[in-house]
Write a structure and sequence with these properties.
255 residues, alpha/beta, Rossmann fold, two-stranded antiparallel sheet, 8 helices, 26% strand
Length: 255
């Protein structure tokens, strides 16, 4: 896929997304994606067609990555105007305007414009920390990405439940310390956890991320998948190497 012409704002750069010839506009001043976004995009169960929405989309990295796995229509929702604009330019940069659409707005109201129960899959990489914990970054864009300034975990789960259809899936990446809150919160809005995978930086180190996927109106039955060990020796594990180099579009469940 060729790179299309686009305008860059001060402090922005264009990086390779390491797969399928994709490129992405980033800025350390505002937002640069990290491993959690890549893992979520490769963990979730993607419908071959249909409709997908990514909440808290930032610069649109998850929709870009999902476009390599499906022909479904994908919407990204981002509340911060500067990031939403960056996400839209990323769609244009990669020539994906026919498949990807970016919406500037509040996820709490997304169902008003996008419709209730319209989506086969909802993905979300939300802020991990409640406002009352941790020192907030002085940069408002980074602070909003890390702390629940615009939405709480409860808000995120409620939005997911409104957007996903019965039998559809919701996939999230978060911190293991909040897993109990996530599971309880999901069940309160009729999202039944089905797949959980812990992510560990190295073998013998406790998990620092958890991937969780739920089914709307599903029956209780959860699979705890083998842990993903990110680093082996001096580099990434073979599973992630294959993802980064485009040899596979999804994480292997056998670990």
């Amino acid at each position: 896929m060729g790179k299309h012409e686009t305008t860059l704002n001060p402090g922005e750069r264009i990086d390779d997304l390491l797969t399928h010839g994709l490129h992405i506009i980033q800025s350390d001043e505002v937002f640069a994606f990290s491993l959690d976004a890549v893992l979520l995009a490769r963990f979730c169960s993607v419908p071959p067609r249909g409709k997908i929405v990514d909440l808290c989309t930032g610069n649109g990295v998850i929709p870009l990555l999902l476009s390599t796995r499906t022909q479904a229509s994908i919407v990204g929702v981002e509340i911060q105007p500067r990031l939403a604009g960056m996400a839209q330019r990323n769609v244009e940069l990669n020539g994906l305007g026919a498949q990807l659409h970016m919406l500037e707005g509040d996820l709490k109201e997304a169902h008003v414009s996008l419709g209730r129960g319209e989506f086969d899959l909802v993905t979300v990489n939300p802020p991990y920390m409640p406002v009352t914990t941790g020192e907030q970054n002085g940069n408002p864009h980074i602070a909003a990405a890390r702390h629940e300034l615009y939405c709480t975990l409860e808000d995120v789960l409620a939005a997911c439940a409104k957007l996903v259809r019965t039998g559809g899936r919701v996939a999230m990446v978060h911190r293991p310390s909040r897993l109990v809150e996530i599971i309880v919160g999901m069940r309160q809005v009729k999202l039944e956890p089905k797949r959980i995978r812990f992510v560990h930086p190295r073998a013998g180190v406790e998990a620092n991320m958890v991937l969780i996927e739920a089914l709307r109106d599903g029956k209780p039955d959860v699979r705890l998948l083998p842990p993903l060990i990110v680093h082996e020796g001096d580099g990434y594990c073979s599973e992630l190497q294959a993802v980064f180099h485009g040899q596979t579009g999804e994480l292997r469940e056998e670990g």
